[in-house]
Amino acid sequence: GRSLTLEANPDFFKPGPYLDRVVYRFADSDRALDLLLSGKADYMVIRPSLGRLPALAVDPRVRVLTSPADSRYYLAFNLRRPLFRDRRLREAINRALDRPALLERALHGYGAPGYGFYTPAVAWAYNAKALAPAFDPGGARKLVAAALEGRAGAFEPVLLSAGIVPYGDMAREVARQLRAVGITVRLELEPPDRWFERAVERHDFDIALLGGSQGPDPESLNLRFGSRGLSQIMGYESAELDAAVSEGSRVVDPSLRARAYFRAQEILARDLPIAPLAESIRVVVCRREVTGLPQAEGRGLVPSHDYSLVRLGPPPGGGR
């Protein structure tokens, strides 16, 4: 339970491997970074806390590598709950979100605000015209008042999030922004396994914060938003959406696929089963002596987690 050692295969049919062995040591993010900075590890598979990246970026011992990712963060509305079937409330929450502020305060500026309904990292399938409602706190307050008119009792929806970084920080900032338009959420932060049980298995939430990869193919729109999508936790059902993503999966011509998926994003922008939050980036930290990583010199030559081109030697640009 402490480590896993992989030995080099001398009969490997491609270039490399150049390392005799790769040893995985199991540790959380902070411990892994401490091992790296003390010279007891060479590379972090997991991302360090975003708050530590500015200092790492100027640390001569390490390289911080960033690249676009197809992962994104969003709020999912539970449409099984009567109030959240009211589109006005979903639009109000979208209009309450100051996404650039969320990026700065919760993600330390790493990534990009999320406005669309698919990842812009898969550019050919991204519809840049199908966007969430613009930031408008005044309009959000009016929509909240209209949606809750005549309703007795306090409105305090549950915002469910994993308590790990950066989800907890994002959830707290979302709660702060919603409070500014008159929506006080009950923030419930859970360990990841408990979050999965509540959000995915029991649908025990009003609003859930989640993230994850949406590439490399837009078929993931079916997975996350289709009526029977395995990652679709909202209880959202749309025959139009299902038809659009089915068409995108059926045809092979890229232009026809793009047209189908553009239409799917237009439907999502109309129905608002979610509120996009932010686009993620991939962050890798390694010692300067490490070269050939799949996120750096090996990009385009090997897939992720393939270390056959990795070497330990002089850092790029010479010097120690």
Task: Give a structural overview.
This protein is an alpha+beta fold and 320 residues long. The protein has ten helices and ten strands. The strands form three sheets. The chain has a six-stranded mixed beta sheet. The chain has a two-stranded antiparallel sheet with strand order 1-2. A two-stranded antiparallel sheet has the order 9-10. Helix 6 (167-179) links the parallel strand 5 and strand 6. Helix 3 (87-96) runs antiparallel to helix 5, helix 4 (99-107) packs antiparallel against helix 6 and helix 9 (239-250) runs antiparallel to helix 10 (254-271). The mean pLDDT is 94.
Topology:
Layout (H helix, E strand, L loop, with lengths): L2 E5 L13 E5 L3 H9 L15 H5 L4 E16 L9 H10 L2 H9 L4 E2 L23 H12 L9 E5 L4 H13 L6 E5 L1 H10 L5 E7 L6 H6 L13 H12 L3 H18 L2 E14 L2 E2 L19 E2 L8
Parallel strand pairs: 5-6, 5-7
Antiparallel strand pairs: 1-2, 3-7, 3-8, 4-8, 9-10
Q: Helical segment tally?
A: 10
Number of strands: 10
Sheet/helix structural class: alpha+beta
Radius of gyration: 22 Å
Q: SSE string, helix = H, strand = E? A: EEHHEHHEHEHEHEHHHEEE
Give average pLDDT, whole number: 94
**What is the distance, rounded to the nearest whole angstrom, between the alpha carbons of the first and last residues?**
34 Å
- Specify the biggest β-sheet: 6 strands, mixed
Strand line-up of the largest beta sheet? 4-8-3-7-5-6
Percent range of helical residues? 25-40%
Principal-axis shape equals globular
User: Low-confidence parts, pLDDT < 50 over ≥5 residues?
Assistant: none
